[in-house]
Amino acid sequence: MNLGVYFPIIDKVVLQHVVNEIKRGFDSGLLRDASIFYDDVGPMEIHNVCGMFHATDIWRFEGDLVTFHPSSIRKAEAAGNKFTITYCHGLTRTPTLELLMSLRDYPCLALSDDDAKEFTRVTGKSVTGTCPGFKGLTKLVGGIHHE
Q1: In this predicted model, what pLDDT tens digit does every residue of 62-87 receive, in sequence order?
Q2: Could you give the 3-state DSSP secondary structure of residue 144?
Q3: Partner of 12 at 20 to 30 A CA spacing, among 42, 44, 52, 74?
Q4: What CATH number matches the domain at 2-146, 3.30.360.10, 3.40.50.2000, 3.30.470.30, 3.90.1150.10?
Q5: What is the DSSP letter of 39?
C-alpha cells in the first residue's frame, strides 16, 4: 500500500507520531511507500522515513490519502484523482458546516473515542475506527481500501 497523509500545518509532535506509524507500517509490510504532504511547515528535527512534499505536489501521488481537515479534502480533489481519500477527525477543530459539506461518501476515522463521538454527534455518521496517537492508522486505511 502507498500511504499519503496530508496536513494543513505540521508540528513536531504530530510529525513524530505520524513518522512512528509509518515506520510501523514499513516494518509490518503493510506499506510499500509513504508520503507526507503539508500546506505549511516549520523547521523539523525529526529523522523521517518517507518523502515530505508541499501540497502542490499532491497531483503526482497515487495511493491512499488521509486528510485531517475538510479544506484539505477539497484541495486534494482539485489536484488529482489517482488516490482514494479518507478523512481523519480530531486533529483540528473544524467548523460544522465545512465538515458537513466536505465529507460526502468518504470513509472517516477519528484520533480518539471522544473525537469519534463528537464526529457522530455532529454528522450523524459513524467512523470506521479510531487511531489514538496515529497508532493503527495504516492498518485501518488498508482495511478500508484493500480488503
Answers
A1: 999 999 988 898 899 998 888 999 99
A2: helix
A3: 74
A4: 3.40.50.2000
A5: E
